[in-house]
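Predict the structure of ABC-2 type transport system ATP-binding protein.
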Amino acid sequence: MPPARHPVTSEPVIRAESLSKSYRRHHQDPGIHGALRAFAHRRTEERLALAPLDLEVAPGEFVGLLGPNGAGKTTVVKLCCGLVRPTAGTVSVLGHEPARRRAEFLQSIAVVFGQKSMLWWDVPTVDSMLVHKAMYALDGPTYRRRVGELTEVLSLSEVLDVPVRRLSLGERMRCELALSLLHSPRLLFADEPTIGLDVTAKQALRGMLARTNEALGTTVVLTSHDMDDVEALCRRILLVSGGHLTFDGDVAGLRARIAPRRLIRAVVENPLRPEDLPAGARLLDPRTIGLEASEEELEDAVASVLALGGLRDLSVQEVDLEAVMARAYSEQAGAGAERGQR
Ligand SMILES: Nc1ncnc2c1ncn2[C@@H]1O[C@H](COP(=O)(O)OP(=O)(O)OP(=O)(O)O)[C@@H](O)[C@H]1O
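Done. Here is the predicted structure for ABC-2 type transport system ATP-binding protein.
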C-alpha cells in the first residue's frame, strides 16, 4: 500500500504577519570594573533578531531558510514551533498559535537537528520509537503502519534493530528522521540535517527528505549552509540577513538577481599573454581563459574567444550557488551596515 499522504488544503501551513522578535540582553563592559558596574547597575539592551516579517508557506512546499550566521533563521523556526513568543505581530502554524503549545499543534510538527540527537544511544531506534508511540498516544495499528511506511520510504530495514551507538552517522540521521516523522507531522523543520555526512550519505539523506516531502506530503522547512542541499531540494528560498527577509523566490531567481552572468571557460593550444585576450577576459592559467558575460553578451563573448584560434575545450557555466550566496551575504552585510547608519 502506498504511504498515506497528508491532505492538500488551500490554507497556508505558516502565515506570519508583521512578525518580529527582539531579545533583551544584559550589557556588561569588559574587565573587572565592567563586572562590578554591571553588578551595581544592570543595563539591558534590546537586540532585534527578526524585523517585521510577512510570510506564507503553502502545504507541500519545500522551503530553504538561508542566511549567514546570526541572521535570524533559528529565531524564525523557534517562533514557528512556539519555543519563543513574538515581540510583535502574529504567526499561525497549521491554524494554531504556536506559543500556546497545544497538544494538537505539537502533534502536527516535528524538528530534526543535524547537531542534536533525539535517539537513545545504547538502545536500538525501535525502542526510542516505542517511547514516541506512548508520547504521541499512537494506537498499535497506526504505529505499525507508520513504522512500515517509514521503513520503506527511508530504507530502514537493516538499521532499526541496531543499537544507535553502532550506527554510522548517515544511518543515525536516517533513524533521527524516522523518529521525528513517526507521529506523521504535517510540517517538518530540518536544521542542518546533512552536517558532517560524507558525500554518499548526504545524497542518501537528501533523497529521503525529498521522498518525505513528495510521498508523504510533509511540508519541509530546511535550514542549511550546504548549497548542494539547497540546490537539490529547495523549490523556494527565503534569505534572511540581519533579521530581514531579503529574498523570497527560487534558485534561478536568486542567481538572476545576484549573479546574472555566465562564466565562459576556454582552453587553447598555445600559452597566451594577457595582451592577446579579448576585452574583459582573464587568464586562469597560461592556456585557460575565463570571461564573464550576461545573457545578451554571450554570443559576442564566445565569438571573441573562438577568434583566438587553437581551441581545445570550451564551456559556459553558471556561477555556482556557493559563490552566489557569498555575494548575496556580502551585499546584504553592506545593506545592513547602511540600515544601521540611518
Ligand atoms: N536567547 C537569545 N538572547 C539574546 N539574543 C539572542 C538569543 N537568541 C538569538 N539571539 C540573537 O539573535 C540574532 C539571530 O540569532 P539566530 O539564532 O536566529 O541566528 P541564525 O541565523 O540561526 O544563526 P546560525 O546560522 O549561526 O545558527 C543573533 O544576533 C543572536 O545573537
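The first helix runs from residue 31 to 40.
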